[in-house]
Amino acid sequence: MFFYIYTVLITLLYIISTPFLIIASFKSKYKTSIWARFFLYKNRALKPNGIWFHVCSFGEAKAIKVIVDALDRDKLRLTTTTQTGKSVIDTYAKQSRYLPFEILLFSWIKPQQALVVMEAEFWYLMFLIAKKKGAKTLLINARMSDKSYPKYLKMRWFYKELFKYVDRVYAQSDIDKERLESLGARDVCVIGNIKLANIPKPTKYFTKLDSLVVCGASTHKNEEELILKAYIKLKNRRADAKLLLVPRHPERFDSVYELGNTFATKYGLSIDRFSNGSTFESDIVIVDMLGELINIYAISDVVIIGGSFEPIGGHNVAEASQFGCKIISGEHYFNQRDIYRAVSGIEVVSKDTLSQKLLEYESIAHSKIEYKTDIEEILRELR
After folding, report:
1. 4/6 Cα distance (integer angstroms)
2. If pLDDT is split at 50, 70 and 90, which confidence band does 176 have?
3. Which of 14, 96, 122, 265 sits in a 20 to 30 Å window from 72, CA-based?
4. Domains observed in the chain
5. Residues 361-373: pLDDT tens digits?
6. DSSP element (H, E) containing 284
7. Start-end of H helices in the chain
8. Degrees (nearest 5) of the Cα angle 369, 316, 137?
9. pLDDT score at 107
């Protein structure tokens, strides 16, 4: 009964949303993904009899690399729901696609040996259809943050139905395990955060600057202005200080540059876009190219973690800590608690105290990764 009611409701939702989806498809961010996901345009079904990984974001796509690299590439099948995620999975295997909207999955999904879903991509029909067609279904790197858990509890009736079709769950922590089990998850194993097992390495090496380099990493709306204000105060004390701002989302590159240019003009500083020549000569550099953050970390002295000064949930601090960077984080890191516990030396501050903490950068300890995650259990299951 639940299956039929759910299917009817999302079918109605699909029909009602169609005009709005077509309008949204004119935005550059969605022009490919919407047509592929909701209208199956140039989105053929994955070949059968493989190991199918589904991820959402750029970060999740990067995190599974350590797993897919250990498997037969011809067996790999990959899907995502985002443009940035697609740019990553395309490098892993030819069988990479956008995941269609649920109601389109009945004919699109082919029998696979396994379905491996990353973190919190809870698509009911994806799990159900894959399971009915013979796949072993795994949820990996599963988490349930303090902020999101109460919302999931209100929908416990839904997740109990979904978890009937999930064979095994690999959780990030004991608290995640307890919360997932309360929602109906079975056979839950705690192995830590997979992102600690696959910390990206630089793809190119820049010469370390003589200047003090501050990196605003994976920033979101409102955070750039906060970091720019803190940087101006530091600049008054350390004339050689440089700021490298790395926005999280490509569609914000232009607006962040305009904001940085306003500050640069007001305070008589130089500014440039990284795409203009990949140099760091200016006081402020807007890094407007994907995949460069790890290379920027390698030459940074102080890293201010974006997504933590707004209620986003934080980002992966292990990537910066492998270089011993001094790390300043905001208080909203609820999606990264397990990684934060694994890294020592992180200074957690409020918005109001960021400027003061940056001025006191010399007193901040160098960060260090204290332990990593073993993914061998997942690999054994898949093999």
Report:
1. 5
2. very high
3. 122
4. 34-198 (3.40.50.11720), 213-369 (3.40.50.2000)
5. 999 999 999 877 8
6. strand 284-286
7. 2-24, 33-39, 58-63, 65-68, 83-89, 105-108, 124-132, 149-154, 156-162, 174-182, 223-237, 253-267, 293-297, 318-321, 337-342, 354-359, 376-382
8. 105
9. 94
